[in-house]
Prior knowledge:
Distance between the termini: 81 Å
Transmembrane segments: 35-59
Organism: Psylliodes chrysocephalus
InterPro entries: FJX1/FJ
Number of strands: 12
Keywords: Membrane, Transmembrane, Transmembrane helix
Protein name: Extracellular serine/threonine protein kinase four-jointed
Amino acid sequence: xxxxxxxxxxxxLQWDSDLKPLQPKLIPTSxxxxxxxxxxxxxxxxxxxxxxxxxxxxxxxxxxxxxxxLIKPTANPNxxxxxxxxxxxxxxxxxxxxxxxxxxxxxxxGYELIEDxxxxxxxxxxxxxxxYKDKKxxxxxxxxxxxxxxxxxxxxxRMQNRLITFQDGLKGCVRYRQNxxxxxxxxxxxxxAKILNLPNLAPSTVSVVDLKQPLxxxxxxxxxxxxxxxxxPIVLTQFITNLKSSNIPNVFKPIERHLNKFDVINMTxxxxxxxxxxxxxxxxxxxxxxxxxxxxxTANLDRIVNNLYNYQxxxxxxxxxxxxxxxxxxSDLLVFLDNExxxxxxxxxxxxxxxxxxxxxxxxxxxxxxxxDKIKKLRNDKNIGFLLxxxxxxxxxxxxxxxxxxLPDKSVKILNERIEKVHNQILKFLKxxxxx
Length: 436
């Protein structure tokens, strides 16, 4: 039977007479079954081992990193960055946990907090304190031009700063420094805040210590006692009353140092806070959004970065009041004080401190829309140097410009680069379908 089938197939295919069919080597059925069984067992064992070991290794490594930073703080950039990012709510909570939570529906009804997932909503924007804007800045500048000081005393911070009283009873803080670049840093940081429309810096202007001028002529003895030199530039800032210390919000303390919509959702679940207290807390955080951007742009060393750096040796430092930050008790306005390290001194030390500047920015995921829009415009126009120098030329007398240099090209270049980084941070969290 087999022979007849073979020759029939050969005839149909017109095989060559010398071609012979291949005879397969048959494997015994029992051996074949055993090989299949062994293969299945081996594959299952390997898969099970990998599936168990990888999560264990990851969790152990993550826990070790967190423990190491808490027990023995370190300035290692990679460890610091890993700990901060791994403790972000965006990292730790997948979307399923909040799948039933609309960002608006998940909080109190009608209480709009966030727009487009990353911008503070109108309710928060409308609740922000007015602060100091162009009109108030202009009033102060005009006032100082004709002011006469009658008293100078210790105050307004450290070193050679002084509190002066004018003949009508108003007061001002004078920042005197031996290093001109610190006066430049204070002044151009103030100008940058004006360009960004940040209302958190007190009105300031530049003057020159000149005993022949009405502003200074009554203060000869006090100036001599302060060991001030004549013909030196100073920054004269309006004295702000009703100031009290301001603590760092919990979301920016180790190791939970971030601010995103999941943080806000968690805050709204706090049943101990009524609507007014909740609104007050979120208004403060909206101002912190601006503060982090402002300090990143200027590379300010004397505020939160100072705390982050010293956290290596003092783990309790984040519980202390924020350095060079105050709150007006009558309006809850945050006042950004002492910006002299901005744009010059801070830029020279970026190699050492940039990791701390970047960590704060990278963990900021909610922004004020007006600030974000201004950042976008500055990034697209690339004219920040022109704007800052234009303010300097317009607002200052020839005597000031003769002894105080304008902002150097190197600082302008670095500032443009940092504007680009802030812009990219905002873009990172925008929904793809939103045109911005």
